[in-house]
Structure formats: structure tokens, C-alpha cells
Amino acid sequence: MILNVRHVTRYLFDEPVRGIVQSQKLWPASCASQRVLSWAVTSEGCMRGAGFTDSAGDRVELASWRGPVSEIEIEVTGQVETIDLFGVLRDHREKVPPSAYLRATRSVAPDKGLRALSDEALGGMDSASDLDRAHALCRAVSAAIAYRPGETEAHTTAAEALAGGAGVCQDHAHALIAVAHVAGIPARYVTGYLQSDGAGASHEASHAWAELHVPTLGWVGFDPANACCPDERYIRLGSGGDAQEAAPIRGMVQGAVPVEQLVVEVVVTAGQQQQQ
Amino acid sequence: MSPKEPPIFNEMLNGAEIRPGYQSLEKWYRSMPAELRSLKQSEAEALFRRVGITFAVYGEGGDPERLIPFDMFPRVLTNAEWRKMDRGIRQRAAALNAFLADVYDRREIIRAGRIPEHLVTNNEAYEKAVVGFRPPRGVFSHIVGIDLVRTGPDQFYVLEDNCRTPSGVSYMLQNREIMMRMFPQLFLENRIAPVDGYAGLLKKTLASVAPAKCDHEPNIVILTPGQFNSAYYEHSFLADLMGVELVEGQDLFVEGDYVWMKTTEGPKKVDVIYRRIDDAFIDPLCFRPESMLGVPGLMNVYRSGGVTICSAPGAGVADDKAVYTYVPEMVRFYLGEEPVLENVPTWQCAKADDRKYVLEHLEDLVVKEVHGSGGYGMLVGPKSDKSTIEAFAARIRHNPDNYIAQPTLALSACPTFVEEGIAPRHVDLRPYCLVGETIELVPGGLTRVALKEGSLVVNSSQGGGVKDTWVLAE
């Protein structure tokens, strides 16, 4: 499947700021399930540099703006060819050992509720395969947290989302990572794009899911928000221990921090390969 | 003293006989009138106050204005004693660095089954962000502080390793400076190896790990958390001695491929950062987002080879108390040598057999938290009452992974000035080993002394002081 992406992030400040620095993780890596045909990240007035491929195999670049600046825009456009590998991440070059993804950050720290959810989901599955156990955890998280925007915010933890019983893809992914950790399964947060309907409607956020490490297969994606594994409608962008570590953009404003308005627009459409 | 405690090794006296190296000091002490002694003691204190060296060593917190007691009676190591320690310290610093380069790359030592994987990769100090990255010359820990204790004429043990940013070296330098100023005669009578080359060697070491693409004399800075940090004095002292800038996070910024320092003549590129800030705070875009101490984007420049950070982020995984047990194994694995310096035998409460032994022998053991420091959160069995021991046993059972235990060592004692004259007091030693293009070590280190009679805790926060440490030249 050919997917076209347009992802625009705009920051508006009510007062000009002295400067901005961002670490951007906005470049999908090619692997068995996706081939990047074209990709561009553009912003006006910024200085780019310090590019490298991080330990998890994701391209990272630094962008900085010297102030005074009151508005910036980061535009990502590209085309990716995908196939359905049932969520299995193959031929992705990375250096971090899976066992380093067993440590909980604040967002995915397990509490009583998450421990119970994990134990319940895996009850009677002692002899089941690792893959089946991972599926069971994903189903349990889908069932325990309803998809309802507006109930949670960026800093909501997995424990809080589970207690509230509702959230968005970030909360689902965090909860799945937490229950996987409880079961001793390495797990991490993945950001990316999802072509969720045929009409090419605009969304207010990019997508997120989790990857669990299954010894026989390697990393396998699970999307508890949609109760499925990533297929040809998904583009994988980057990963990290939680939403903060995996964030496509981590930035900091220099000087006094003014009121900031963030506008994100994501359009993913299925389409024809562009003529080269 | 309970009967099972072994005799304490006195570094000056062997019965009535004076050990080599201490003869002239013994005479010096005997010929010093009491009035002169107290005069000199207040002179020393005044000198310390004047230079402003009043901070707590080793990040122990406490009152930053408090003066750490300086004991004028020097500690002496003969050349033969030091030669062995020197060999052992260099060996250990090399092995620790080889371990760090390995666990962030091919992880051979784990594959070979010589250390359990979870102790390393699941360790709080193991930094995912630097896996696969080789810092210049493959060095992660550029300043290794190795804490040593002694129990006999030839028995030296490593108590712990400090691979991040060990502090206290300014005391080593100032103790010598002040002794030379107050008692110049002693330095004519004895041939004492100098320590004042330390700053030059530190600068040379830092310059030798400049990024490969730095084609000029590297611009080195010391990054401090600021004047409220308890070791701020040391940061500014070392910057002065090396002739480099002392900066805070807000004095630096990243742009393009580099880190820049704000100066009155415009931005100046920075090549090497000797940071005295913990990993978690050096870059809010990579680690703790709320940190105001670091430089946003610093890790991006580091990972792309634009700047060197000393010690390297992630170096702490080598000095964890649970990993410590495996350092002798690292020496054998990476260097193919037998360790010159021994570890203190250590039981890991995470292991069922070890835990059982520890819980049954708490009254004879010292129990420490794996991540603790500064002498807090530890149990000194022989000096604790029954209820304290029982309460501690419950903590171990609740979270065994968090504790290790060691036998109570009969730490050696050195003559120390007390009210009535001199008396033996327990000491330890922290030498500072520099690792860059070469491995460098100035003779000696910082001797800490437990000033309270019978106390084994040398931490300054718990009544410890410092001494000048002499290594006699051949």
C-alpha cells in the first residue's frame, strides 16, 4: 500500500520568545514492513544540525531558532510503501538490547490495578506461547480503557488512565507497556501514522502504539487503541520507553515561557506512487 | 570491643617499633610543644577558611559552609606500598572502562555469562541513549575515584568505585598546600612525591578526548550546577588551576552541529565538557524535562560527535554496588590479568543463599543500600542494638535487591591529633585516576579519617576529617 503523509505542527506564542531548540525524531526508518519513497521535514528560519541515528535505529536531528520568534511551523511530508507483516518489526537496525526495555519510567510505573490487570489477562496461560500472552495483554488493555478523547492529558500515567477507564492511544500504549513489564516482557512506546479512514480526513494528532518483545519473533507491534496489530495502514516513526522518550518533537523555549498554542494537523491518505 | 574483632593495623606503630616512613614524623610530633600545636591547628583552619574550602566531600549534603576538620598529622605510604596500589588502581580503571565500552556495544561479558544481564541492562544507570555510541578513545570514565581501605601491612581492599564525577580532589591538593606552608621543614626532611601535577594531568586528559573533528586546541569547560552545589568550590578551584572556563547550563547553547559558550566577543565553540552534573540533569530534551541545570540539545551534539562529555553519560553503570562484585571478573575478562587489588567480600541480598547468610549474621556485617552513598541507610552490625538489627532485617526482606552486605573490616588506623596528644583513628583513601589517551595517577589521594574514637565511618557528614597523604619517593 502506498501512504501519503502530511503532518504539520505549529507553535504560536502570545509574546516573542528568545529562542527555541528542538530534538526531532520525525524520520521513519525503512524496514521489512515499510519502504520510505520520499520524506521531507521543513521549517522556516531554523538552523538544523547534529543529525544521528539513535540507539533504537531512529533518525534524530536538532533544530534551533534564534529569537525573537513568535510562531514556528514544522511540516513533514512523505510517501511510504507498506506491507502487512502482522506487526512484526523486521530488518530494523538498532543497538539497544530488549532487556533494557524492562525498566519503568514514571508514565508506565505499575500500580496495584495494572498488576491485577496483567495477572488476570495471563491467568491460566502459563503454557501459552509468548505471542499469545502478548495478544492477551493487548486485549485486556483494550477492554479496560475505552477510547475517549478529553479524559486524559499529556502527563496522565498508565495507572491513572486505567483507574479512569478511558483515554487515548497514548494511554493505551502506556498501559500495555506497564502490564507487559509486570509480566516480565520488554515493551516500548512507538509513534507513527495511521490511515484510519478512506476519506483522508485531518486528525489532531499522530498515532501511538506499543511494541512487545517476543523471543521467537523480535519486536511485535500491538495497537490496543484499535485492538489490532499494525498492518499496511501504519507507518512506524520512532520509539522510546514512554511517550516522552519517543516523542517526535521534544523542545524547549529559552527565556520566560509564554502562553503557547499548539496546532497539529495530520493527514494520511492511501494513494499512487509519485512519478520519480 | 568484642572478642571476635581482629586486631587493628596501626600504620605508624608495630608494637613499640616505628614503621618505615614515620620516623621523622614521630620526632616532629614529640618535639612540638602543645601551644605550638594548637596555634598551628587554628592557623590551618584560618587558611582553609581563607581559600573558601568549606564544602562537604562526595556529595554528602550537609551544611555547605561547614569546615571539614583537617588533621595535621600526615598519613604516610612507603614507595613499595604505593607501587602496588598504583598498579592495582590503573588496572581497575582500565577494566572499568573496558566494561563500559563493552556493555554499550557488543556486551561480550554478558554473552560470556560472566555477569548477569539484568544487573547491567536493567540498571537505573544503564543509559539506552548511548548504546552503540563509542566516545573518543572509547573512554567513558575519565576520572575514576577508587576508595581503598587497609587491614594489614599488605592488605588493601577496594571498598567502592566512583566512575561518574568523584569529588574531593581539591582537598587532596589543598591539604598538601597547607602542610607545605605550615611545616616547610618536614618537606625538606622527607622526600615526598608531589601531587601538584594533578591539574595539568586533568587538563591533558580532557584535551586528549576531544571529538575527532576538533582540529584545534580544544576548548575545555567545567559545567557546574552552580554556587549552591556543595562542591562548587572544587569546580571553581579546578577551573582556575586548569585555566578553563567555569560555566553553568545557561552559559551554553546548542546550534547546528556544536555546543557554544556565550562570551562578550560572541559565541565560542566548546569541545570538551567536564560536567559536575548528574546524567539525569544534563539535557532536558533527552533526560528530565524539568531540569534547568543542563543544556537543551546537548545529547544530540554529543551523539553526533560534536562535543565530548566527561564522564560519559551512562558511566554510572560500572560503579553500582551490585556491579562492584564483578569488577575482579572484569579485570580477568578484559585484561587477562589477576586483580592486584582485592574487593571486600560481598554478599548480594538479591541471591537467596547470600540473603540467608546475611540475615543470620547481621550482628557481624555491614549492610549497605545498592545505590546509597554518604554512609546513610547502612547498618553497622557490631555497633547496632538488637531492635535496630531487627528493623533492618525487615527492610532487607522487603526489598532484598536493594542491599549488599560485607564483613566489618578492621580498618587500619593512623596517628591523629586528639585532645590528649595523638591517638590512632581509622582511615580510608581515595586516589583519583585519570583516563584519556593514557592512564595517569598522582601519588596518593585523599585520606579521610574517622575522628570519633572507635568509629569506622569516615564520611565528613558523620564526624570525619581529612589528612595530607604522603607517598615517599624512592
From TrEMBL, chain A:
<keyword id="KW-0645">Protease</keyword>
<dbReference type="GO" id="GO:0006508">
    <property type="term" value="P:proteolysis"/>
</dbReference>
<dbReference type="InterPro" id="IPR038765">
    <property type="entry name" value="Papain-like_cys_pep_sf"/>
</dbReference>
<dbReference type="Pfam" id="PF08379">
    <property type="entry name" value="Bact_transglu_N"/>
</dbReference>
<keyword id="KW-0378">Hydrolase</keyword>
<dbReference type="InterPro" id="IPR002931">
    <property type="entry name" value="Transglutaminase-like"/>
</dbReference>
<feature type="domain" description="Transglutaminase-like">
    <location>
        <begin position="161"/>
        <end position="226"/>
    </location>
</feature>
<protein>
    <submittedName>
        <fullName>Transglutaminase-like enzyme, putative cysteine protease</fullName>
    </submittedName>
</protein>
<dbReference type="GO" id="GO:0008233">
    <property type="term" value="F:peptidase activity"/>
</dbReference>
<dbReference type="InterPro" id="IPR013589">
    <property type="entry name" value="Bac_transglu_N"/>
</dbReference>
<dbReference type="Pfam" id="PF01841">
    <property type="entry name" value="Transglut_core"/>
</dbReference>
From TrEMBL, chain B:
<dbReference type="InterPro" id="IPR025841">
    <property type="entry name" value="CP_ATPgrasp_2"/>
</dbReference>
<dbReference type="InterPro" id="IPR051680">
    <property type="entry name" value="ATP-dep_Glu-Cys_Ligase-2"/>
</dbReference>
<dbReference type="InterPro" id="IPR016450">
    <property type="entry name" value="UCP005522"/>
</dbReference>
<feature type="domain" description="Circularly permuted ATP-grasp type 2">
    <location>
        <begin position="74"/>
        <end position="450"/>
    </location>
</feature>
<dbReference type="Pfam" id="PF14403">
    <property type="entry name" value="CP_ATPgrasp_2"/>
</dbReference>
<protein>
    <submittedName>
        <fullName>Uncharacterized conserved protein, circularly permuted ATPgrasp superfamily</fullName>
    </submittedName>
</protein>
